Amino acid sequence: MPTIKRKHIKLKRNSICPCDENDKREKPLKYKNCCLKEVRNSEQQIRMLHHHDKRVSKAKKEMDAAIERDNQYAIDHPIIIP
Ligand SMILES: [Zn+2]
After folding, report:
1. What is the value of pTM for the model shown?
2. Which residues of 38-70 are buried (b: 16+ CB within 10 A; e: fewer)?
3. Quick one: three-class SS letters along the chain?
4. For 44, how many CA atoms within 13 A lie in the half-sphere containing its CB?
5. Residue 81 CA to ligand 1 centre (angstroms)
6. What pLDDT, on a 0 to 100 scale, did the predictor assign at position 8?
7. How far is the CA of 9 from the centre of ligand 1 (A)?
């Protein structure tokens, strides 16, 4: 197996970001103010989504438990239809 050389240069937070976006800029931004920010933002979004998922699954569990309780109640107290 041939070793794959990493294309990406290891970036430092304060080095100039090598992205195309930055090339177009008159004043090139540092990595921390350019793509690193976006990486951070997307990480934040993922984290928030994950948090949201957790909350949703917790709510679902509570809902299931409530339905379960209702079913139990219905068994214990059958509705008598005249
Ligand atoms: Zn960039």
Report:
1. 0.51
2. eeeeeeeeeeeeeeeeeeeeeeeeeeeeeeeee
3. CCCCCCCCCCCCCCCECCCHHHHHCCCCCEHHHCHHHHHHHHHHHHHHHHHHHHHHHHHHHHHHHHHHHHHHHHHHCCCCCC
4. 6
5. 69
6. 60
7. 13
pLDDT for the residue 9 = 60
- Which residues of the chain fall short of a pLDDT of 50? none
Q: Among all chains, which residue has been given the structure tokens 């928030």?
A: 48
- Domain segments of the chain: what residues? 20-72
52 CA from centroid of ligand 1 (Å): 29
Query: Residue 72 Cα, ligand 1 centroid: separation in angstroms?
Result: 58
Ligand 1 centre and the CA of 39: distance in Å?
A: 10
